[in-house]
Write a structure and sequence with these properties.
There is one protein chain. The chain is of the alpha/beta class and about 260 residues long. Helix content is about 30%, strand content about 15%. It has a single domain, classed as Protocatechuate 4,5-dioxygenase, Chain B. The strands form four sheets. The protein has a six-stranded mixed beta sheet, sandwiched between helices. It has a two-stranded parallel ribbon with strand order 3-7. Helix 5 (about 135-140) packs parallel to helix 9 (about 220-225).
């Protein structure tokens, strides 16, 4: 199965017909139908390793200040406790919490609403362990590679550039030069298979700490890169900067040639 890293951007993308949502719907037509989905979202940070294990995960509206229509949106995909247990076994002997309280946050469902709108494929989420550095996340992800041969689509969700303090909601097409430089450098290193440079992302450009002021939106990219097979090249999509400082660069492994 493929591995995806998708920039999710504005939560309203879940409801709107725009360049991002159209890209996700077009991408869905190129994907095989998975048996299940493992989502790794910027919006679930945990103390220790955790994976959702509820049979019916709730739709979490983890934001404020958006229209009521977004807060009312539901993505009623089933969970799969058996997959959660399988993941826990793959990561043993490290302890893994099987979490039945968390559900699907907007980093997952805003994308899945367009990729699989019927919400009929089981989804589990893996939390981002706050106790790990970038190298720790990367090496943890490598242990999940067998899932690709078990019909599981891995969907990592974040943003390569994510600086909410500098974004300008009035200008969706604005690109700050520093944001473009960082995104281009990330793309270059991904294309070269230089995952070490991505792990040490704070050294990629002079403005790296501006592009990634906190790590949670960048870390899912490391999971996608780590799950690539040896010699497997990424395909890049949706290479845009929005609102000045939100990088939407997306990629996939195992997708073959462009359709």
């Amino acid at each position: 199965m493929p591995v995806l890293f998708l920039g999710h951007g504005n939560p309203m993308n879940a409801l709107e017909d725009n360049a991002d949502s159209r890209f996700w719907r077009d991408l869905a037509r190129q994907l095989p139908r998975p048996r299940a989905i493992l989502a790794i979202s910027a919006h679930w940070e945990t103390r220790g390793i955790a994976v959702t294990a509820a049979a019916r995960p709730q739709t979490i509206h983890d934001f404020h200040g958006f229209p009521a229509s977004l807060a009312a949106f539901q993505y009623p995909a089933p969970g799969e406790p058996e997959l959660a247990a399988r993941i826990a076994g793959m990561l043993a002997p490290e302890p893994v919490a099987l979490d039945t309280a968390w559900g699907l946050d907007h980093g997952a469902w805003s994308l899945l609403a367009h990729l699989y709108p019927a919400a009929d494929i089981p989804v589990v989420q893996l939390g981002l362990d706050l106790g790990r550095d970038p190298a720790g996340h990367y090496h943890l992800a490598r242990r999940l590679r067998p899932l690709r041969n078990e019909g599981v689509l891995v969907l990592a969700s974040g943003n390569v550039v994510h600086d909410l303090r500098r974004m300008d909601w009035r200008q969706p097409d604005l690109e700050f030069d520093w944001a473009r430089r960082f995104s281009d450098r990330v793309r270059d290193r991904l294309g070269a298979g230089d995952h070490g440079a991505l792990i040490d992302y704070s050294d990629l450009t002079a403005e790296a700490n501006q592009a990634v002021p906190t790590p949670e939106h960048f870390l899912p990219l490391l999971y996608a890169a780590a799950l690539a097979n040896e010699g497997e090249a990424p395909r890049f999509f949706n290479d845009r900067i929005e609102y000045g400082s939100i990088g939407m660069l997306s990629l996939g492994y195992g997708l073959g040639d462009p359709a």
